[in-house]
Amino acid sequence: MNMPGFNAEASVYRTRVRYSSYRGVTPVRDSRIIFPAQQYCPDKCVSECTHGCRADGLSQDDCDALCSVECDAYGSGLPLSCGPCVDYVQTCIYCGRGPDTRSCGLASCGGVTCSPGAHCCGPHCCPPTCCPVGTYCCSDGVGCCPEGQLCASIFGWHFCIPFHL
Question: Is 137 part of any domain?
Fold first, then answer.
């Protein structure tokens, strides 16, 4: 197997160094037991974890030891990388855990999330409205009308009027 900077032969070797698990307390021995692989914890994940750990009242040394091995112990919401937004769904890799999906490209409208393709109309109005695909927001910010129709209102009633040239 060949990859730039890596080959399988170089990745398997004998060492005289003794590896230790969490906090260096328990040496890892060859006991024919399979242990899960340790997480890869980038610096920004360790920093986020340490910040949360310290806020919880633990010492800096305890937080450094914990977060360098288990960076999702405090706060795993930090995305390391995200793919493109496709059909309003995006796959991201988060600190200390594998890939997960999240919504993307959706309009937020005064605390309400609009459905895919919709846009916000009147976010400062009561109540905010999501205009569906194929409509536009009326200038008063109160309602939506289909493309090709005009917004109208009279005595507090809002409606759409077909528009023909």
Answer: yes
For residue range 126-147, what is the model confidence (pLDDT) as tens digits?
A: 677 888 888 988 877 678 899 8
What is the value of pTM for the model shown? 0.45
Show the domain range for 143. Answer: 108-162
**Residue 134 domain flag:** yes
Question: Side chain identity at 106, as an amino acid letter?
Answer: L
Helix (H) / strand (E) element for 81: namely strand 79-82
57-75 pLDDT, tens digit per residue, is: 999 999 988 888 888 888 6
Quick one: how far is CA 26 from the chain centroid?
Answer: 35
Among 26, 82, 3, 73, CA closest to 45:
73
In the chain, how many domains are there?
1
Distance of alpha carbon 98 from alpha carbon 39, whole angstroms: 10
Element (H or E) spanning 5, and its range? none
Please, which residues have CB within 8 angstroms of residue 42's CB and are 6 or more apart in sequence? 71, 80, 95
Which of these, 49, 50, 56, 35, lies nearest to 94 by C-alpha position?
Answer: 49
Classify each residue of 7-16 as buried b or exposed e, where b means 16 or more C-beta atoms within 10 Å of its C-beta: eeeeeeeeee
In a domain, 135, yes or no: yes
